[in-house]
Amino acid sequence: MDPMSFILFGATGDLAKRKIYPALFNLYMDNKLPEAFSVIGVGRESLNKKEFQSTVIDSLYEFSRHSTDDKAKKLAFVQKLSYVNVDVTDEESFNELKAFVEGQEEGAGLGNNRIFYLSVSPALFDVITTNINKSGLGDTSGWKRVIIEKPFGHDLKSARALNSTVLRAFSEDEIYRIDHYLGKPMVQNLETLISANPVLQSIWSNQLIANVQITANETVGVGTRSSYYEHSGAIRDMVQNHMLQLVMMTAVRMSERQSVSELRDEKIKLMNAIEPTSPEDVIRAQYTRLTIQDETIVSGYTDESGVRSDSTTDTFVAARLQINTPTWQGVPFFIRTGKRLRSKETKIVVEFKDSLNLSQNASDAAPNLLVIHINPNDGVTLQLNSKHPLTGELEPIKVEFSASHRETPEAYEFLLADAIKGDPTFFTHWDEVELAWQWIQPILEQFDSNTIPLHYYQAGTNGPEEADKLLESYGYKWW
Ligand SMILES: NC(=O)C1=CN([C@@H]2O[C@H](COP(=O)(O)OP(=O)(O)OC[C@H]3O[C@@H](n4cnc5c(N)ncnc54)[C@H](OP(=O)(O)O)[C@@H]3O)[C@@H](O)[C@H]2O)C=CC1
Ligand SMILES: O=C1O[C@H](COP(=O)(O)O)[C@@H](O)[C@H](O)[C@H]1O
Hints:
Blueprint: E1 4-9, H1 14-29, E2 37-43, H2 49-63, H3 71-78, E3 81-85, H4 93-108, E4 114-118, H5 125-135, E5 144-148, H6 156-169, E6 175-177, H7 185-195, H8 198-201, E7 209-217, H9 226-229, H10 233-251, H11 260-272, E8 282-288, E9 290-292, E10 295-298, E11 316-322, E12 332-338, E13 345-352, E14 369-375, E15 379-387, E16 394-402, H12 411-421, H13 430-448, E17 454-458, H14 465-472
Parallel strand pairs: 1-2, 1-4, 2-3, 4-5, 5-6, 7-12, 8-17
Antiparallel strand pairs: 7-13, 8-11, 9-10, 11-12, 13-14, 14-15, 15-16
Helix pairs in contact: 1-2, 1-12, 5-6, 6-13, 10-13, 11-13
Bound molecules: NADPH dihydro-nicotinamide-adenine-dinucleotide phosphate and ligand LXAUTJHC.
Ligand LXAUTJHC binds near residues 218, 237, 346 and 375.
């Protein structure tokens, strides 16, 4: 692996502490980082090197998969970390940053390969890339890559404008737009699961599949991120990126992938084939407080700090999508995601058509289901019908595989390892992002005009009843 500098904008932020440092440390412990590397944290907070290193150590104690007991190894990792105090809106200070990076490169024999990770508010993505460009920080004799956090844009227009700005500093193949759902082990496994198992490959089409249901339910509320979430809602926070990526990863059909770009090309074709959705097929809702005997047990969305009391932000979205390809014609894809729901669960459920062999009790048969569990546990469940040995009646049985006992690396580990290797397969290409915004844009407008009304659901429930009715109207129910 090539030596490199990893320049992290947003080094004091929540994501850096919870995900990025632990992922880097885990990769280091697994010998998946280059021999020579340097992590340069960038933030406004005034910190010296020791203070910065100790905040990173705290985050490793709390969040890393590997134990930090090996003191020598931990120290060796921490010594690779340094910090520069920069306000990214100040063009001048990029010259200092550049001098610092060059100093590190020379001192540690790092060559001239640079990864820039933008783990900052999306409002800063364009100013950072502009200043990287203007200051010459992006002029390297080696390779350079930029990892950009989500959301990429606020709507179609702003996403296009941001992309043009970023393209002034980096070419498309140097841009790694991160969608951490694409790093989740079971999502990375999907393509293999289908293409490496002829039994699944042969049934993966509208011949046998009745519908696909993709759920990403959360129990948490907006936490400390209300200022971001108020402008985002579930539609931008989850649907435009993670949910559409899950749809594409489920629908992609490849027997044998030939090249890195093939998966992306296939996804782009699918995204292009998603039909515009009519307002009746989209449900938006917001959670209300949960009270028991007049006591508030869980706050409603509008009670959360930083949220307007008359906010109409969506904290739940469900929708029906139709992919207009020969494989998926006639198979509805239902998606739902929301905050403050009963349980944390991300899964893909493939419901198969009714039995074609109308045996005497086929009408009692439950549908066959293939459930791909993504979070909190990885695994696969297949629901089949069996005969009860005593009553002789049909009963659904489950064949289960669970990977929860394995110590699986986190999404960010997979994605960072790929970016360091220069493999963009599981990052989103601009064409995918643009098509996703194109599909979402009319829905955003229908939210604004109230053509899609706002419904409510009590915190701790399964979401609004309108989401159940959406499926009922197609003859199905959520699994
Ligand atoms: N947190 C999460 O769970 C997730 C976050 N993301 C995305 O990751 C990105 C980062 O999020 P998160 O870590 O939560 O954000 P935080 O608000 O916790 O951190 C923001 C970081 O940006 C730095 N920063 C802000 N303004 C400036 C400035 N003018 N100059 C230099 N640095 C600045 C802050 O440094 P300082 O305080 O020193 O100024 C801080 O390190 C966002 O794009 C978010 O959408 C994506 C998925 C999940
Ligand atoms: O990107 C985001 O994802 C998280 C949910 O991620 P998960 O890995 O826990 O399923 C969500 O809470 C957050 O609002 C969103 O920005």
